[in-house]
C-alpha cells in the first residue's frame, strides 16, 4: 500500500492511497472460498458448486464489496500511521478500481487544529458577589403573592399588569396566519409573553374595544417564517381583569410550608431559598465570564466542517420547520447562526484541549450532586437517580457539564480575579 499526504491549507489534507491488485485478488479469493462452502445453486449440492461458476456469477459483486471494505480499512490505517485526526467524515473521491489495475482513491478532510493556550494568569475576570438584602426578600414576597393572585373583571380601560381576554387575528405580508379570529386568547400586559410592542398596544382598551396595529417580529424569532417580518394584528377585547393579591397572613405562609404561620419564619425560609438561587446564579455567571475570557484570549483556526455541522444543529433547534422547501432564511438569520456556531465550536475545542492537557475526569461526587439536584424536581427523586445511573450514556451530558465546571475552577485558580458587588435582581434577571 502506498500513501501520500498533501497539505492544501492550514487544516485541509488530501490523502492519496494506492492498493495493489494482488491485495484485492487475495481478499476476493477468500470471499469466493467462503461462498463456495455455503452457496446454493440449482443442480448442485451445497458446497459442491464449481469454483469457476461461483467466480462467474459472484465475482463482480464480491470485488465491489472487497473494494469498499479496503477503502474503509486502508483509510483508517493511513490516518493512524500518519497521526491524522479528521474533524469530520473524510470525502472519498477519484476512486479507481478496474480489474487488474488495483485500487486508487483520494480522501479530503480537515484535521483538528493545534491549539496553544494563553496562560491563565493573563486572564482578568470580574466575578460577581452579592448579599441578600431585606428589599430582595420583600421583592420575593411580592413575586409569590403575584403567583397566588386571583382575577376579577373590571369595567375600565386596561393598564399595566391587567389581563385581557382577546379575539385577535394576524397576518404576515398580507397572508393570514391565524386562519380567522382566535377567541378567548388571554394576554397579561407586562408579562412579556407576546412579541415586543404587542402588550403595550393593549393599554387603554376596554371591553368591546378594537384596535389594529403593525409590529415587526425579532430577527432571532424562533419560527423562521416570521423572523424579521412585519405583521398586522387586529384585536377585539372581550374582557379586562385586574389582579387581586392575597393577604400576608398565616394561611398564605402555610401554602409555602410554614405550618406555624409565623411571618419571621417565612422570611427566613425565603431567604434560604434566595441564597441558593444566588449561589447558582453566581456560579453560572462566573462560568460564563470565564468562558468569554478564554474565547477572547485564544486564537483558534476552526475546521469549517465542524462549523457547518453546528449551523445545521442550530437551525434544527431554533427553527422547527427548517428543512421545508418553502422555508427561506434571511441573511441576518444565517449570519446569526454562523456566529453562534463559530463560538460553540471554538469553545468546544478549547475545553477539549484544557481537559486533555490537565487529564481531567468528571468528579464523581460532583456528578452525583448534580443528578440529585435534578432529581429533586420529580415526584420520585430516587427513581430518577437510579435511571441516570442505570446506563453510562445517560450520565454523559452530566459528566460533560461537571467537566466544564472543573475547567472554570481551574482557570479561576490561575486567573486575575476581581470581585464586583451586584444586586440580586440584576444577578438573577433573564436577558
Largest sheet: 6 strands, antiparallel
Distance between the termini: 58 Å
Work out the number of β strands: 12
Q: What is the correct CATH architecture of the largest domain?
A: Orthogonal Bundle
Low-confidence stretches: none
Shape: elongated
**According to CATH, what is the topology of the largest domain?**
Trigger factor, domain 2
Rg from Cα? 32 Å
Give the CATH superfamily of the largest domain.
Trigger factor, C-terminal domain
Classify the helix fraction into a percent range: 40-55%
Secondary structural class: alpha+beta
**In percent, how much strand structure appears in the residues?**
15-25%
Number of domains: 3
Give the helices and strands, then pairings:
Elements: E1 2-7, E2 12-19, H1 21-36, H2 51-81, E3 91-96, E4 103-110, E5 124-129, H3 134-147, E6 150-153, E7 163-172, E8 175-176, E9 182-188, E10 210-216, E11 230-244, H4 250-254, H5 263-297, H6 304-318, H7 331-357, H8 364-375, H9 381-389, H10 392-414, E12 416-421, H11 424-428
Parallel strand pairs: 5-12
Antiparallel strand pairs: 1-2, 2-4, 3-4, 6-11, 7-8, 7-9, 7-11, 10-11
Helix pairs in contact: 1-2, 3-5, 5-10, 6-7, 8-9, 8-10
Structural features, described:
This protein is of the alpha+beta class and 431 residues long. It has 3 domains: 2-110, Alpha-Beta Plaits (2-Layer Sandwich), CATH 3.30.70.1050; 120-128 and 278-428, Trigger factor, C-terminal domain (Trigger factor, domain 2); 150-244, Chitinase A, domain 3 (Roll), CATH 3.10.50. 45% of the residues lie in helices and 20% in strands. It is built from 11 helices and 12 strands. The protein has helices spanning 21-36, 51-81, 134-147, 250-254, 263-297, 304-318, 331-357, 364-375, 381-389, 392-414, 424-428, and strands at 2-7, 12-19, 91-96, 103-110, 124-129, 150-153, 163-172, 175-176, 182-188, 210-216, 230-244, 416-421. The strands form 3 sheets. Strands 6, 7, 8, 9, 10 and 11 form a 6-stranded antiparallel beta sheet that branches. A 4-stranded antiparallel beta sheet has the order 1-2-4-3. Strand 7 and strand 8 form a beta hairpin. Helix 1 (21-36) crosses helix 2, helix 6 (304-318) crosses helix 7 and helix 8 crosses helix 9. It is elongated and about 95 Å long. 14% of the residues are buried. The model has no long low-confidence stretch (mean pLDDT 91).
Amino acid at each position: 500500500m502506498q500513501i501520500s499526504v498533501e497539505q492544501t491549507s492550514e487544516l485541509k489534507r488530501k490523502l492519496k492511497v494506492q492498493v495493489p491488485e494482488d491485495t484485492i485478488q487475495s481478499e476476493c479469493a477468500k470471499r469466493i472460498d467462503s461462498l463456495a462452502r455455503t452457496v446454493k445453486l440449482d443442480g448442485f449440492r451445497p458446497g459442491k458448486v464449481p469454483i469457476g461458476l461461483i467466480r462467474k456469477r459472484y465475482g463482480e459483486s464480491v470485488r465491489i464489496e472487497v473494494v469498499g471494505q479496503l477503502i474503509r480499512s486502508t483509510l483508517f490505517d493511513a490516518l493512524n500511521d500518519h497521526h491524522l485526526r479528521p474533524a469530520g467524515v473524510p470525502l472519498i473521491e477519484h476512486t479507481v478500481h478496474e480489474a487488474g489495475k488495483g485500487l486508487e482513491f483520494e480522501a479530503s478532510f480537515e484535521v483538528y487544529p493545534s491549539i496553544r493556550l494563553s496562560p491563565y494568569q493573563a486572564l482578568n475576570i470580574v466575578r460577581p458577589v452579592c448579599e441578600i438584602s431585606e428589599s430582595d426578600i420583600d421583592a420575593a414576597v411580592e413575586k409569590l403573592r403575584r403567583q397566588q393572585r386571583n382575577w376579577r373583571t373590571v369595567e375600565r380601560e386596561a393598564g399595566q399588569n391587567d389581563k385581557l381576554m382577546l379575539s385577535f387575528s394576524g397576518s404576515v405580508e398580507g397572508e393570514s396566519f391565524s386562519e380567522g379570529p382566535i377567541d378567548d386568547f388571554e394576554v397579561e400586559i407586562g408579562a412579556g409573553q407576546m412579541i415586543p410592542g404587542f402588550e403595550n398596544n393593549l393599554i387603554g382598551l376596554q371591553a368591546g374595544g378594537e384596535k389594529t396595529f403593525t409590529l415587526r417580529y425579532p430577527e432571532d424569532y424562533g419560527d423562521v417564517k416570521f423572523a424579521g417580518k412585519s405583521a398586522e394584528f387586529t384585536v377585539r377585547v372581550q374582557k379586562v381583569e385586574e389582579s387581586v393579591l392575597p393577604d400576608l397572613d398565616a394561611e398564605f405562609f402555610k401554602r409555602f410550608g410554614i405550618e406555624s404561620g409565623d411571618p419571621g419564619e417565612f422570611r427566613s425560609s425565603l431567604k434560604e431559598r434566595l441564597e441558593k438561587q444566588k449561589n447558582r446564579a453566581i456560579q453560572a455567571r462566573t462560568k460564563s465570564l470565564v468562558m468569554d475570557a478564554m474565547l477572547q484570549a485564544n486564537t483558534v483556526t476552526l475546521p469549517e466542517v465542524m462549523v457547518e455541522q453546528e449551523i445545521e444543529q442550530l437551525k434544527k433547534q431554533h427553527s422547527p420547520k427548517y428543512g421545508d422547501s418553502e422555508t427561506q432564511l434571511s441573511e441576518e438569520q444565517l449570519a446569526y447562526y454562523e456566529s453562534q456556531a463559530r463560538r460553540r465550536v471554538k469553545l468546544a475545542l478549547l475545553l477539549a484541549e484544557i481537559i486533555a492537557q490537565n487529564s481531567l475526569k468528571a468528579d464523581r461526587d460532583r456528578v452525583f450532586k448534580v443528578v440529585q439536584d435534578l432529581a429533586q424536581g420529580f415526584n420520585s427523586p430516587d427513581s430518577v437517580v437510579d435511571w441516570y445511573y442505570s446506563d453510562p450514556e445517560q450520565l454523559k451530558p452530566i459528566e460533560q457539564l461537571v467537566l466544564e465546571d472543573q475547567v472554570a475552577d481551574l482557570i479561576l485558580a490561575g486567573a486575575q480575579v476581581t470581585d464586583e458587588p451586584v444586586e440580586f435582581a440584576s444577578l438573577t434577571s433573564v436577558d
